[in-house]
Amino acid sequence: MRTRVLVYEYLSGGGWSDYGDEAAADELLPLGLSMRDAMVADLMHVHDCSVSAATCVPVNTLPARAAPLRPLAGESAFAFVARQSALHDLVWLVAPETDGLLARFQRTVGDARWLGCSAEAITLAAGKQGTLAHLAAHGVPTPLAFEHAPDIARWVVKPDDGAGGVATQVHTSRAAALADQAGRAQAGAAVTLEPWIEGEALSLSLLCSGQNAEMLSVNRQRIAIDAHGRLCFEGVTVDALGRDDPRTRPLAELARQVARAIPGLQGFAGIDLVWHPQRGPVVIEVNPRVTCAYVGLSAALGRNLAAELLASRLHGHHPDRELARGHA
Q1: By CB distance 3.0 to 4.6 Å, which of 118, 154, 200, 261 could disulfide with 196?
Q2: pTM for the full model?
Q3: Average pLDDT for residues 107-117, to the nearest whole number?
């Protein structure tokens, strides 16, 4: 029997029109499209799998042979996902954690069809300060350990539930950061203030099951800060650290440590971190969903990660190589 999978990426599926922040939607839409198309392309190579994906005008093209689905006139994103999830066996969904979107979609789909992290893990990871406090309590190094460090020269203010580096500001003094935080809070925004951790910006791509995590790759994040302190995420170099890099082993252990601390991580997830020159890895946030590092990762690893995700979800194990007919 064919497994019917719905791929839904919030912005390219129509959510850009009601995201509430047009500038942020414009900034995030290209990332969303690239993730959606990579997920669909991998699934198209999985045996006995039919793939549908949400699209909308003007985002109206999909990889070949995938069935396009569009919301009805006036249909909300949540109503569309609820209607379509009932017609599919599994739903693989990507949405920002902002304003509780990803958690609400998880509740809309329900555990039986959801291909991803648990509602509890999503809710925890959606709040950056809460996540850092939780991880620190489990012995994971975070920026909280640097709050009183004498060598901190910069501070960062960002939405507590933001995604993609949107509305992230780097300040050269704590006083300026506190003023920024207070101004945004007065305007009703939930923001967090953290020490800016100097070092190399990296991310980990994980395949999680139970309370274990396989570290698929260590990726290098391309982050720029303009003359006004505005942070811009410029993309990611996938699988940037070789297996013989001395940082690989401690990073793999860090991934397992995070998975033990957040047991609801399931399927593909990501960790953003900085490798501090003296203190090593410092976790910045956890992404309980597919991240832009998924794009090109199956090809880089010579594995079809979508096939492995489906096999783990349907059969409780990683697939043998017969499940995938090829690689994206």
Answers
A1: 154
A2: 0.93
A3: 97
